[in-house]
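2024-03-11 09:14:02 DEBUG pipeline.ingest accepted 1 chain
2024-03-11 09:14:02 DEBUG pipeline.ingest length=210
2024-03-11 09:14:03 DEBUG pipeline.predict start
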Amino acid sequence: QAAFQANGACYGSRRLRAALQAEGVTVGRYRVRRLMREFGLKLAWRRKFVHTTDSRHELTVAGNLLDRQFSPPAPDRAWTSDITYIRTRRGWLYLAAVMDLYSRRIVGWAMAPAMPAALVCSALQMAITLRKPAPGLIVHSDRGSQYASLAHTALLARHGARASMSRKANCWDNAVMERFFLNLKMERVWRRDYANPEEARADIADYIVG
């Protein structure tokens, strides 16, 4: 109970078990799950959904080069990317992020009140500028029009990176990024009431770099 509350009442059984193990308490995940039910430990967040992927387009769709190989042998061999949304009292804010799958850290991001191709290009350009990856890097995404756009495809080509895209309607092909966005929302976004996009932008940037 103390570990659950210390982590903001937003850890599920897997992460709560890891937190307990870090404190020297050996316990199985299923026992953690049973104890959470027994003590009524419920996560303090609510889901809100907005459709961010529009795959109904005639742009070229890349094959799934990543193929759920989420543990590359070294940094900057494989990145994954996606878009999510943040509700504020003055409209939506969209976040595009790029993650290095080796370190599981966000290496590039961009936020804007809309989600054109320029949003994902800005996030990718930030990652390229900071990390300077060698040619051959795989950059995975969904099949949305932003990632299939000519601008995003050209940016990849200029830096010798290879596009990889999830299969149609298959969120598991990008499960690591989906998990990051879920953690972001459980631990920060769904516990806030942002007055405006500027406030949300600052808070989310603090979460990413923190």
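2024-03-11 09:14:41 DEBUG pipeline.report Helices lie at 2-6, 13-22, 29-38, 117-131, 145-148, 150-158, 175-187, 197-209.
2024-03-11 09:14:41 DEBUG pipeline.predict end
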